[in-house]
Each structure stands twice: as structure tokens, then as C-alpha cells.
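Q: Predict the bound structure with pyridoxal-5'-phosphate.
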Amino acid sequence: MSAIPYGRQDINQADIDAVVAVLHSDFLTQGPTVPAFEQAVADYCGAQHAVAVNSATSALHIACLALGVGKGDCVWTTPITFVASANCARYCGADVDFVDIDPHTYNMSVECLTEKLVRAEGEGNLPKVVIPVHMTGQPCDMASINKLSQKYGFKIIEDGAHAIGGKYRGEPIGSCSYSDITVFSFHPVKIITTGEGGMALTNDAELSKRMKLYSSHGIVSTVKDMMPKAPEEIWNYQQIDLGFNYRMTDIHAALGLSQMKRLDEFVIKRHAIANRYEDLLADLPVITPWQHPDSYSGFHLYVIRLKLDEIKKTQREVFSALHIAGIGANLHYIPVYRQPYYEQLGFNAGYCPEAERYYAEALSLPMFPMLINKELSYVTNVLSKCIC
Ligand SMILES: *Cc1c(COP(=O)(O)O)cnc(C)c1O
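A: Predicted complex:
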């Protein structure tokens, strides 16, 4: 059996044909396919606006900029996430702080968030933006986080990099019903892919406009958006702010638009795999993913926790045994503040105790739609031999 990665894309002939069609067309970028992809995702999620960009990292950056994050501001996120959820604030010159996780969902804990907000209010350093991350695809407790945002006056960016195709209380993640902006990633290990790519969704026309502006050099090309100038100085575009080239190409968008047709099928397959793992792992000394009744996860990741007091191996030994057997188990994630860059900013080991406990026990098993039963049994057999 060839090596089994922890995640991989599922590309069919229709995807390939869609990309080739763009290559034969007039526009490789800034053509009609990007807006078509934006519309398809916005419609699927029930959001008013969508801005496609070249990664979720870019989407997080322009989301922070659009919300006015800058020097002297603080942005809070969860430590159990990919570094991009925190880095976006640093790009804007803002400080970052971390809210410990819930021990069952591994999402930002609303109790910890509440306590931290009470303290911050007393100290006069409330966050400007909070970025909850739908870890593994399971939505955060958005209703509670939204309530807190109204009480304490912060904005919300949902990092839904793991979560397109999932639902919170029956509503698609990305609807932005409880947030200002939701961000998706289309990296190949995520739920749908564009190669590299991301998107920011919002129901706020002004935020959408600002994110578009920042994604393309800060340039506007319609006269009504331009700064007042003498008529002879008005040409076909004007740079009114400092932006970036974060644009998605039509080649990438064609792949994304084609993948959207199979989004529901992908998520259904991921749930079927999760259910099969649940059965196969039932008698092993591991904790399988707990699902909150409000949530329908995108199941980007399948994270188990090792009951180390019942296992005679270390987490590192289990990880290595899986890798030697050709199973690309992974660790999602090292608490972000334990990264040397964040340690240099003054964060220490132990800052978020629940996140540290999770970090000491977690392992991601392979999870992607094309995973077959034979591979699943192989993974669980290798794991069983290692830890039982
Ligand atoms: C993958 C990921 C990102 C970054 O996505 P890119 O598209 O690779 O930039 C951000 N946040 C989380 C939680 C992720 O998993």
C-alpha cells in the first residue's frame, strides 16, 4: 500500500476540463470565472458578498484591514489553529492574544473568552477583533460569541478554513449570521480546493468593498469611488489606499467553481469516514471527536486524543510508528504561542493549560473523501498494534 497522507484533494475530469477551458479562453485572470465562483460560494452559504483571493491567509489579512485593525489594537484568537489565524493581526501591526480552548470541541472556550473579556474591560484593553476558528470543521459557539461581541464591542472574523460545507444550527457556515466576516481556505488538504486560494464572505457591503480594495493594490476603477480630482486628472483607475495583489486567477476559480458541485458529496463522505473510524476505534484507548448537537462539521480533520495513562507509548512514539507504516499522521496544532516567533513576543509554555493538554495527546488520522475502507482498517490496525 502506498503512503496515506492525512489529507488530499479529490480532482475529477470535470475539474480538469473546467481549468483547461479557462486556459483556452480570453482571460486567465480578472475574467468572468472569479465572480462566478464568488457568487456560487456566496449563494451556497447564504451570504451577501464574497471576495475571492489567493489564500485564506490573504483573506484574513484583508478582513483585519477592512475592520480597521492597526497598531495599538489587539486581536484574540485560539491557540489551537494554524499560525495564519494569528499572523493576520501582526501584519496589521496589532498585538495578538490567545483564548484557551474547550476540552470537548477544541474550539475557543466561551467561558475562557468571557473571563478574559471581564479582565480586559477592567484593564482597558478589550480586543478590537476576535477570530474564532471552527477547528476540524466543527463550528464554534457562535451565538454566545456574538452576544459577547455586542456587550464588549468587538468585531468577529470566523476562520472557517476547515469548515466550508458545515452547518451551525442548521445554517451554512459562511452565512455570517453571527459574525462580520467568514474566511475559507481552498488549499488542497481543505474541503474543496483551488490549488491555493481563499475567500472572505460578509453581509456588509462596505466591508466587502474595502476587502476588494485591499486585495487589488488599493485601486478603484469606477469614477464614483475615486477621490475628487480635476476632470483632466481622472483616468481609468486611481489608487486611493495601500493594498496588495492578493487576487485569485480565473484558472484557480475554475477549479473552485467545479469543486463546489461536489462540496456536499465531499462532506457526506467525510462524515461516513468519521463514523467508520468511530466504530473501528471504539475499543482503543483513544478519545474520538465529540460533536456538539448544534454542529454539522465539515470534518476537515479527524483528531483523536491518546489516553496516555493507558498507553505504554509516548505521543511521539505513536506518531513515528504510524509514519514508519506509511501513515501520514499529523499534529494539528502546536499551540500558536509556542512557536518561536510568538515566544519572542513574550508568550510562555503553559499559557493556555487546556490547549497544552490537547497538544500533548492529539493526533490527526488520515481524513479525505477518497480514503477507502481498506486504508481505514489499515490505519486503525497499525494504531491498535502500537497502543494496545
Ligand atoms: C489552512 C488554514 C489557514 C490558511 O489557509 P491558506 O489558504 O493556506 O492561506 C488559516 N486558518 C486555518 C485554521 C487553516 O487551517
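A: The chain has a mean pLDDT of 97.
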